[in-house]
Amino acid sequence: GTPQYQPPSQSPPLTMSGTSPFDDRGASQPSQPLGSEAAVKQNDFEYDNLEARRAASEAIEIGRATAASVAAQGEQLSRVEDMADEQKYMIDRAARILRGRTWGGWVANMFTSVPERPDRDGTESGNNQVVGVDGGCGADYEYIDVPPQFESAAQVVADYRRHALLFLPACSTRDQKAACRAACDGLRDKARRELRALELAGANSGGQDEEGWGWYNVLSRDKESADEELRGINLAVGAKKESFSSNRAASAAPAGASALLEQSSLPTGYSDELSRKAAMQDDHLSALSSDLNELQNIGRSLHETFNGHNEMLDTLADKSDNLEDQTKRIRRKADRLTERAKLRKTPAQFKELITLRNIETGLHLGCYDDGSSAPKLRSYDERASVWELWTRQGDVVGLKNRQSRRWLGQSMVGYVVCSASTFGRSEEWEFDDGDHQAKRLLCAGANWGAGGWLEILGKEKDQLGVGHYGVEAGTKAARWKVLVHEDNGKS
Predict the structure, then answer these.
(1) At 13, phi and psi to the nearest 5?
(2) Which parts of this chain are annotated as the region Disordered (predicted)?
(3) Among 188, 254, 370, 465, which is 20 to 30 Å from 125 by CA?
(4) Which pTM does this prediction carry?
């Protein structure tokens, strides 16, 4: 009754006579099961096509998102530039007010115009004005008085409308239009997500209040209007492309794999199969060609946009340096006026002993007992090259030579001298904000209080002079390595 083990039956060996069920050689009608080599190759071909088109689509989506992000960065840079212009206006107004505190400045103000506030948008006020809730959208579709929970969505919708309604119609070249259209697509998707998040947030919290739904409706309506405008532009472009393609196809000679197969004399069975594969290949190549053209346009536009951003960053850097220089001048003037109004002047305080070694020549600035009051550049001297650093109000400092006991300053005729016995206005100096390895010295009392950079003059680089002020003049200023003297105490 116990079951006995039975060995498995042996399959007949495969022979070259075609007796194997898997051997289809010599058959008049070849069959191709699912696991056959031809089917695998066909599946691999279709899979590779799909993967290539999927990769191209993902690259386009990334390019569009990048274009939208770069466009948003451009908007931020424009706002920063507007802020810099506004800051310059405020500094000019402050300089005019401070200048009017003196008799000469009051007379000068009578013959000069008041600084004008910069126009933020570069156009007259009121252009492109769209009114929404509580003021709604201002110039260039910028929303104003937006509740905090709607600020992100309002900014995205404003950027989307600005690109779809202002920038895209103004594009003149094909690359610009393609890049702007890609930016519009990215901003549209982002605006849709923002509005969807607001809708879900309102539903989860029991509903928005009346003002909240009002803002939501305004943003949704504005997005839909931009969508309609963008669809109209895309339809017009598509119709133009279709007309151009049909005309070119009618006049051009047949090309492509499918057209070549039509001219061949292959058997009917093989011709149908190859025609189907050739048509698939043509469709695949056409789709890839369109995607690659769009990627090329996006890349060109990003290149142009980045170049524009670099130029804008250079402009912002120059404006920032000018603003810093002007701010320091205003602060020095304000400190002088404040000090002048005091009954008791602020005394100078000793800080430390230093030496000033010029970076270009390697020589030290010193004052020597040779019958001349002009400071000179020479090798290090333990007394003539040492200076006492004194501080007063703000960043103003004084330099008193340890050997001659005289203050470094500017004479009445503009020469750099070391002859004053007191720390006066002409002996006020100011170091720039660089490190101790490359400092520049500004004579704060030069050029009628505007300041002037200390320069090295002469072919032998052995003379000192005070130049002009400003960023451009600062490039000519001498640079000094400030070293704290070991014997750090007054003598």
Answers:
(1) -65, 150
(2) 1-42
(3) 188
(4) 0.53
